[in-house]
Amino acid sequence: MLITGGNFTNPVAVKFNGVTDPAATATALTRIQTTVPANATTGPLTVTTSYGTSTNNPIFYVPPRLTGFSPTNGIVGSSVVITGANFTGAGSALFNLAAANFTVTASNTISAVVPTDATTGPLTVTTPGGVIISTNNFRVQPNISSFSPTLGPVGTPVSILGTSFFNVTNVSFNNTSAASFTVISPTETRTTVPSGASTGPIRVSTPDGTAVSATNFYVTRSSDLAVGITASAALQTPGEPLTYALAVTNKGPSIVTGVTLTDTLPPGVTFVTANSSRGSCTFSNGKVTCLIGVLTNGTGETATITVIAPNEDVLTNTAMVTAVEPDLNPADNTALAVTTVVSDASRTLRIGLVPGSPAVISWPTSAVPFTLQFLNSFAGSNNFWQPVTNPPAIVNGRNSVTNNASSGDKFFRLQKP
Fold first, then answer.
1. pTM beyond cutoff 0.85
2. What value does the CA radius of gyration of the chain take, rounded to a whole number of Å?
3. What structural domains does the chain harbor?
4. Angle of CA points 296, 301, 302, to nearest 5°
5. Residue 406 — very low, low, confident or very high, per pLDDT cuts 50/70/90?
6. Residue 178 and residue 148: Cα distance in Å, rounded?
7. Closest Cα to residue 229, out of 106, 320, 330, 117?
8. How far apart are CA 378 and CA 410, in angstroms?
9. Residue 390 and residue 387: Cα distance in Å, rounded?
10. What is the distance between the alpha carbons of residues 132 and 87, in angstroms, rounded to a whole number?
11. Which residue(s) pair with 71 in the sheet?
């Protein structure tokens, strides 16, 4: 290299940050020919002659050297120490051309963080003295940060989030490979739980390594869900609130997902409220739907639904529970509650007595199909209520049955459906 200036006479001493070039020669009063020593480092350049010593400003930047990095592989966000020389004033550190955040901790050391968009390849360091590229590649390994959902049966779609999902070769659930997968981006891969999978970690493999989830994916199995329903009254007056209490139980043996309680309300009732011990309930088109979600083996949840039946009727309320997983006993997935809605007047018997004529038993016609029953005596153990065999005649809006006086005394009652 050529140094220009003045009063350059031999002998001359040229030092690069204290390292002397023994071959430096003043070829003229204004020129020195010198060579950067192999072990020179970035720093001040000094020239010494019989006239004195001069130091250049700014400092002289020696081309950087890169001798190694540790570790040689890692995930996005991990720290890497780059070693070499002449890193002073470094302007960039690249992981296969992806710019990294870095700190020059010493003239021979750089601490860098693997950037999000890094891929496997060489490291590059740029300083005012030049550019140096590593001869070896830094391998960027995949990493799993989360997945959703965290549990489900075979066939459940799963989204895996993380970093460096480049050239993915395999996705597995507890070492059972997924039949297929789709790499949405370097930070997301989607797949489904494969047949034969069991509870365990999720793995995503690339040519640069395998990422293992920190938590397990829980593979759920068939279980027995049961539902029960009771009404606040078996006999109800029109216009009064009627409340249904529903209970869902997971009898096991597995945790289940996507548990949904559906209640089909009887026609004609007015919906008031619905609440669940967990999740939310909505009402639409005559149905109440409660989204319970995940239900652990041996646990249960409850719901209450309040309606008003404005008219006389026999109400049948049907509750049903479902889950994503198959059910071991579908017979207990549904339950019924029956309530008779009728006024006191509609269920009151009247006896008409006319001298010389048989007694007439009557009651108002209504939407409730009451059955007239009789009992000969309350005494004895063999007396049972029996239906009256002759059908009632409808006279002036009333059901009427004529009692045969020759049959002796009887007791009558109305039996609801």
1. no
2. 45
3. 2-55 (no CATH), 65-140 (2.60.40.10), 143-219 (2.60.40.10), 225-341 (2.60.40.1530), 345-415 (2.60.40)
4. 170
5. low
6. 16
7. 320
8. 10
9. 9
10. 10
11. none
